Amino acid sequence: MAELLDYFGCLKGHDLSSFSREKVEKLLLAKGILEPKHVVRLSQIEKQVFPPSSVPILKPGNNFANNFYVFLLQHYENGVLDPFYAFFYQFNDEIYGMDMQQQKTVALEHFKTISGEILTKAISFIWTEKNPLGIDTVSNMGKLQMLHGQQLALKSNLADSTLKYPYLQGDDSYFNQELLFENDLIKQIIHFETHLKILLALNEKYHFEVDTCFSTNLEEKDNPIRDVVEAAPKDVAPTNPFKLPKKSTKITDKEAMDYLLKTIFDKKKK
User: Which residue has the higher pLDDT, 240 or 131?
Assistant: First the structure.
């Protein structure tokens, strides 16, 4: 796994609001935050020649994207852990007294429901091959592989967002509790990572799929949809990309927990 460099505060003291876009890009490139990359859309893959002949564009590097994502998850760790613990408190009570096969049946129902909550419906991948009799067989890509691709897209979206500027300037106070409920991208990431953490724990115990993506934290393993997945919708940047949004009034603990738990057992209760 590549070394995870610390970019937090690396632009502290720079008045980015007074810089032109070109000057900002030049600074980010010099710091290793931006890298020249070729972007290939899924619709173009069949006709794409590798290496691409198009002019690369500046995009956040993988190391920076990983670093920022880890910072955000560590900063809002309780936003993931609290509903994770709450789920398994209820799940353990639900499977009490069951043998392993009965537990696995219940766990599989949750696994399919929760993965359905966060798996994108926009794209899907299948494998096709011929068996020894020459008959075509079709297999779906594993849910964990798909989720890994979505996580990469979220990392890319976060690294591309204006949220990176307070991070790069070392403004730790900007990432407060209110921002968690104010910023749609952060809410999306915490929502995704909460459900993903539950799925990985269920899969670890009940072995629904072979995990080839998440078994080592942040390691960028081979993934057939890596670098070609079209990113999920991004947050809309303000007119001035360096003008940060206002912070809302304080959210109560009850409101926070209600939000973070609202989808985990919804379908189970219906």
Answer: 131
Q: Which helix (H) or strand (E) holds 94?
A: helix 77-94
| Displacement of CA 55 from its chain's centroid (Å) | 28
pLDDT for the residue numbered 42: 56
How far apart, in whole angstroms, are the C-alpha atoms of residue 260 and residue 81? Answer: 10
- Where on the phi/psi map is residue 97: left (φ > 0), alpha (ψ -120 to 50), or beta? left
Closest alpha carbon to 154 in 235, 223, 217: 235
The predicted pLDDT at position 50 comes to: 61
Amino acid letter for position 196 = L
Roughly how many angstroms between the first and final C-alpha of the chain, as a whole number?
43
Phi then psi for residue 259, to 5 deg, are -65, -45
Task: Report H helices in the chain.
Answer: 21-30, 62-75, 77-94, 100-118, 143-160, 164-168, 177-182, 184-206, 253-261, 266-269
What's the pLDDT band for 199 if we cut at 50, 70, 90?
A: very high
| Mean pLDDT for all residues in the chain | 79
To the nearest 10°, report the CA torsion of 89, 91, 95, 99. Answer: -100
Q: Closest by alpha carbon to 63, among 21, 2, 121?
A: 2
**SS3 label, residue 195:** helix
Cβ contact 153:123 at 8 Å:
no
pLDDT in tens, 84-131: 999 999 999 999 999 999 999 999 999 999 999 999 876 777 778 888
pTM, to two decimals: 0.74
* Contact yes or no for 18/232 (Cβ under 8 A): no
